[in-house]
Amino acid sequence: MLARLPGAMARALLVALLVLTPALILPETRPDSAQIILLMAVFAGVFTLLEYASASPTLVEFRDAPPFNRLRFLCLFLTVVTLSLIQAGPVTQSAPARLVTALGLVVGHALDFPYSPVRLAGLILPDTSVASIALLRASAGMAYLLSLLMLAVFAVWLRLRNWPLNRKHGFNVWINLPTFDPTGGGDVIERLERDARYNIALGFVLPFVTPPLLLLVSKLVGTITFSSPHTLIWSVTAWAFLPAGLIVRGMALLKVARLIAEQRERRAVLAGAPGAITA
């Protein structure tokens, strides 16, 4: 545990910084909101510290299989930073905010076609002013672009770097998949492949389904307000990042299932089992 402590502390600080980022970039944050944000940052940091300092995690998957979590954190951090700059732009008028907003508007317009996720994201905004729609389009465009980049980078890494294997140590399925119960019944490979397909399918559907569902909920229980920049930042971030994270997880589970299948074939060949697949 002591050997893991420095790395765990560094990760905890980064996660806490991630939670604090909107409050640090936005020009105005109410005192009561600041206290809640600080409490959430402390909780997220402590949770990360415990997960990475322990011998085996309880919830964090692929802890010892970089760069899975590093890539996801980088995407999440960049999304929060860019969306915070976009929301702060009308007030601060800083050069980084104007640059990110301009890039977001270009990407948002490119992705804003009928029935696209960016077009559907506009349903969550009750305010129909031109400025509000432009900010939402820029935020949704940047968030969706970063999520697509994360998918592309991870797919290339899977293809070229033989993830999750590395030179230092092998891949421990039970440590890197703490929420997966191998005794849950059925073949492990079939269950991993089934979970992977569910994750990928859900990841593709969520960006299209979430905005109409929020619109339906707002009509049933009252209007869901996105007047707070913090609410809009985290809502758009979750809308773009969670589906991409599910797809990345599905891709990772498929790769793990394939590795287990290959290991079984090698053992069958070495044992001379009947019906073994030989090269």
Q: Biggest sheet, open or closed, and with what strands and sense?
A: none
State the secondary-structure class: mainly alpha
Q: What separation lies between the terminal Cα atoms?
A: 42 Å
Helical stretch tally: 9
Global shape:
globular
Q: How many separate domains make up the residues? A: 1
- Residues in β-strands, percent: under 5%
What is the residue-averaged pLDDT? 86
N-to-C SSE string, H for helix and E for strand: HHHHHHHHH
pLDDT < 50 runs, ≥5 residues: 275-279
Helix content: over 70%
- How many beta-strand segments? 0
Instruction: Please compute the radius of gyration using only Cα atoms.
Output: 22 Å
Key phrases:
single chain, 279 residues, 9 helices, 0% strand, disordered C terminus
Model description:
The chain contains nine helices and no strands. By secondary structure, the protein is mostly helical. The chain has one domain (56-179, 187-271). α8 (188-221) packs antiparallel against α9 (229-271). The longest helix has 43 residues, at 229-271. The chain starts with a helix and ends in an 8-residue tail after the last helix.
